[in-house]
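*Target chain*
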Amino acid sequence: MYVILVYDVGEKRVGKMLKLCRKYLNWIQNSVFEGEITEVKLEELKLKAKALMNTDCDSLIFFKSRDSKWLYKEIVGNERSKLDNII
């Protein structure tokens, strides 16, 4: 499945959340990630993220699609992280 993840966490936890999310998805902008992920890996990411979070004030939002081809993405301005995977 294709996922866009957006997080909003306290300043003390931002670095740890960034490091965790980069293990699973592609970092595209501050607190925003995207990429293909299996259901099992997504659940693993959620569990690890919940362990870092203060659920009273932090949040994670997942936008899910079966495939990236069903999602239109338009970038205006500077693209922070290009997802070109040239082999």
